[in-house]
Design a protein that fits this description.
heterodimer, A: alpha/beta, Rossmann fold, 5-stranded mixed sheet, B: alpha/beta, 5-stranded parallel sheet, 41% helix
């Protein structure tokens, strides 16, 4: 059985490694250090860890000040609070001043599970993607998460790294090197492109297996960098297959599906299907149940692909 | 060691404040829009900081040992621009470009465009949190000398983040942050007491763990003493100092004083001429 680990597991430990390597990392957390794993950073470097309590706007503002003072400032909390609650702080203080503030909140998407819709952030990619200068990375597994955190720490400017709570299959080897603006073709194919991010990358790979049984050769791309997009890789694949399915654990409004649609519409329009949550809030349930409930399984991705290639 | 504020002449700082007020009126009249009321109310406070209290050098704006200034009430950008121009961060000829396309002087402070501006502000309530973060970075780097001065408006205190930050500074022992409130009692929609009453501002800061001091925000001699001594006082009591300055919105221009309508409206050419005359701008070399 495939090993499963949550992307959030990479957060605290990778930040500890970065300080050991000489990167001037500090962390500002808003009372969720045990859940986000920044507690591990706090244990290793208590003098570099600052808790604002339950105050996300202050978390972002304080991180901004630390960045003005030359620090690489990572922030904590859950995706729903870190983005929505503090949006104006991210826009007007962090992005407008082009600061080295790196948001890597956890608990994005429906895989948060039983806590329900109030805690399942499905709009964060849309919110972060529209901010000038913000780079948006969505790691597919724990090793990609470590790579994303390293990229955010060592590349100047604001970053958003989307992390999750639930264990997801490990796809990449440890120490995998990924790039800002670089997608990874995980499986080559000629009939349909499946462009996925986050937990949906594993579902896309499973979908490709289902499609192979039907004689459909799917190309699976881990987009990873939602902003900037790897236009070259995506356009080359769309040019080859002529059909694109996007897959994300996020609203179909404004996230990966929208970003890919914008790219294709301007440069190489091809038939598309967007797998994602269809403009609704989440609800309580177990992660697996919710993935099925919202149509986010390998079978759903495969069905969309079959429809596109006319073999539904 | 004698500090510059201890030997500064109040009369000289008053002249600096007057020159800054003249600049404020001229740049706003030229821009045709902007915020005179809260710029004029803060002029004496900012003149005391830039003229005597803060250790800073326009030729070395990145000096790690400099004192920092955060204008949380970003709409008072003209008072900051006047101070920066008067102390040599950029030529005064830039002032006439305020709010115009391509200018280094944006409608609200932009740290990516203006020399000497530490952080972009304008969306209210965010400056104190940033000042706290800057103070933390100084402590981490072992820099014990610099102080971060943060100027807040009073209407701005209605923003929740101010109090999140107010809770944070004493908890983290940030004696290197000084919060200054320009308490002019007016906001866009009228008197703060009518729009959303602030109550006893000094008592609120005290309740959050600050050593709160009140003072006349137009008494330059008193401001020199209070702002100049704030850091030493903070170290002595082991808590950050908040200075609540009682001020008059539009101070120095009689037809603007105490009138909320002058919060965000530029003077016409005729009004500017009257204001410059009242301020005695022809008498001060700028």
């Amino acid at each position: 059985m495939t090993e499963k680990r949550a992307t959030r597991e990479a957060y605290g430990p990778t930040l500890v490694e970065l300080v050991r390597e000489g990167v001037d990392v500090v962390v500002v957390e808003a009372d969720l250090s045990k859940s986000t794993t920044t507690a591990k950073f706090a244990a290793a470097y208590p003098e570099r860890f600052f808790n604002t309590g339950v105050a996300e706007q202050n978390m972002i503002g304080t991180a901004a000040g630390l960045a003005v003072g030359g620090k690489v400032a990572f922030t904590g909390s859950f995706a729903v609070f870190a983005t929505g609650r503090a949006y104006d702080q991210i826009r007007n203080t962090v992005c407008y001043s082009r600061l080295d503030v790196k948001l890597a909140p956890t608990h994005a998407g429906v895989t948060v599970g039983p806590d329900g819709g109030s805690h399942q952030m499905l709009e964060d990619l849309a919110l972060m993607r529209v901010l000038p200068g913000m780079r948006v990375l969505v790691p597919a597994d724990v090793n990609a998460a470590a790579a994303a955190i390293r990229l955010a720490a060592t590349t100047p400017g604001p970053f958003y790294v989307r992390l999750g709570r639930a264990p997801v299959p490990v796809i990449y080897p440890a120490d995998v090197e990924l790039g800002v603006g670089r997608a990874t073709v995980l499986q080559e194919g000629s009939d349909v492109t499946i462009a996925a991010v986050g937990v949906m990358v594993a579902e896309a790979l499973a979908a490709a297996d289902l499609l192979a049984a039907d004689g459909i050769r799917a190309e699976v791309i881990d987009v990873f960098s939602v902003k900037p997009l790897d236009a070259e890789t995506l356009l080359a694949s769309a040019g080859k297959t002529g059909a694109v399915v996007t897959a994300e654990e996020h609203s179909v409004v404004g996230g990966l599906g929208s970003a890919v649609a914008e790219l294709l519409a301007e440069h190489h329009p091809v038939p598309m299907r967007r797998i994602g949550v269809r403009d609704s809030f989440g609800t309580s349930g177990e992660p697996d149940e919710l993935m099925a409930h919202y149509g986010l399984t390998a079978a759903d991705v495969a069905a969309a692909a079959r429809e596109l290639v006319g073999k539904a | 060691m004698t500090r510059p504020w201890q030997t500064a002449s109040p009369a000289e700082i008053e002249q600096l404040a007057r020159r800054m007020r003249c600049d404020i009126i001229e740049m706003l009249a030229e821009a045709g829009s902007g915020h005179p009321g809260g710029s004029l109310s803060a002029a004496d406070i900012v003149a005391v900081l830039y003229g005597a209290v803060m250790q800073h050098d326009a030729t070395r704006p990145d000096d790690p040992e400099r004192d920092r200034f955060v204008l949380s009430k970003g709409h008072a950008a003209p008072v900051l621009y006047a101070a920066l121009a008067q102390t040599g961060y950029f030529g005064r000829d830039h002032l006439k470009t305020l709010r115009k396309l391509g200018s280094i002087l944006q409608g609200h402070p932009d740290s990516t465009k203006t020399p000497g501006v530490e952080i972009s502000t304008g969306s209210l309530g965010q400056g104190l949190a940033v000042a706290n973060g800057m103070a933390l970075a100084l402590k981490l780097d072992g820099r014990t000398e610099p102080t971060v001065f943060c100027l807040l408006g009073d209407g701005e205190l209605q923003e929740g983040e101010v109090w999140e930050a107010a809770m944070f500074a004493p908890h983290h022992g940030l004696t290197n942050v000084v919060a200054i409130v320009d308490h002019n009692g007016l906001q866009i929609d009228g008197a703060c007491s009518d729009v959303m009453c602030l109550g006893d501002v000094a008592a609120k800061f005290a309740a959050f763990g600050w050593d709160a001091v009140e003072c006349d925000g137009h008494d330059v001699a008193r401001l020199l003493e209070v702002l100049g001594g704030a850091r030493e006082r903070a170290e002595a009591v082991g808590r950050p100092v908040a200075v609540v300055c009682h001020t008059v919105k539009g101070k120095g221009v009689s037809f603007m004083e105490g009138d909320a309508d002058w919060h965000g409206k530029a003077p016409s050419r005729e009004q500017a001429a009257a204001a410059l005359s009242e301020l005695g701008c022809e008498e001060v070399a700028r």
